């Protein structure tokens, strides 16, 4: 009896490792034709957890450098390169037919991208065309078909099993460690050229804000200001503090809505999700929608003059003080 049970366990293990080998994931690389966006390395870790072969699609215009970078990333098998003028601006309208054609050729079990503005615009379209449900913004992988995501602004955690033949999944970067950028030996191959132009849209141009500061989504330290900052000019105080810490600057939605800072600085449910080593919330009350974007930060510091502010419930260190006194003092002491 004992013998047959242990044989069963062995067979189940063999079967599940065989299933893992049958998985094949396509990761859609996010980049700017020159450099890979870090979220792609987080997506590679997620792909590794699913198991099986990992291919990466690098679509762009003169994107050979990015393809080279992806080949070196750990765990990558095939790097499918689609270099074409049609992909200028990385519009979902042109990338979707490319992904569908690639899917038709290779029959992947999973298609993955980061839950960024890029992934959020692209994957629902791909899923709709494949007639499957997209699985959005996952924070963990239980098995090849079972994923974990948050709902109700992060107040509840949902585990879902996808029964679709192809799983189209976007991943929350802060919940998956970045895969090593080196040590891999992926093989690059060109995707069959086709006409991916569309008459529905035309990419004209884009203006990207340039900053020497670390990127908000991947910075190791973030200093965020809220309505308590009272004006955009007062954010200078936070930039001075951020400079000392090599930190990115973020904001609450109230600060963005009041026009203190541009909306690409917004942290929260409808902004960016961050999980730096250090998050300093200044003049931010701690509404659940804000917490949804930063509560996974490793160390949270809050400066607020109201001792009852909910931000203190998630803070590791709280300073009940007037920010206009406390922040310059802190900056000076650093
Ligand atoms: C669907 C939906 C989505 C949302 N998405 C987001 C989101 O992504 N991100 C987000 O942030 N919010 C979001 N919100 C808004 C959210 O509910 C809050 O309104 C917002 O986070 C409040 O911002 P705040 O903390 O800066 O402002 P307030 O709540 O007004 O807090 C200001 C704080 O500053 C403190 N303060 C004032 N003066 C000083 C001083 N001199 N010194 C020290 N402290 C001071 C006050 O005590 C107070 O606690 C969303 C809301 C909805 C409904």
From TrEMBL:
Q: Which GO terms describe its biological process?
A: fatty acid beta-oxidation using acyl-CoA dehydrogenase
Similarity annotation = Belongs to the ETF alpha-subunit/FixB family.
Q: Mind telling me what this protein is named? A: Electron transfer flavoprotein subunit alpha
Q: Name one GO cellular component term.
A: mitochondrial matrix
| Cofactor dependency | FAD
- The answer to whether keyword Electron transport applies is yes
Q: Which CDD domains match?
A: ETF_alpha
Source organism of this protein record: Cloeon dipterum
Task: Name the principal localization, coarsely classed.
Answer: mitochondrion
- What does the UniProt cofactor note say? Binds 1 FAD per dimer.
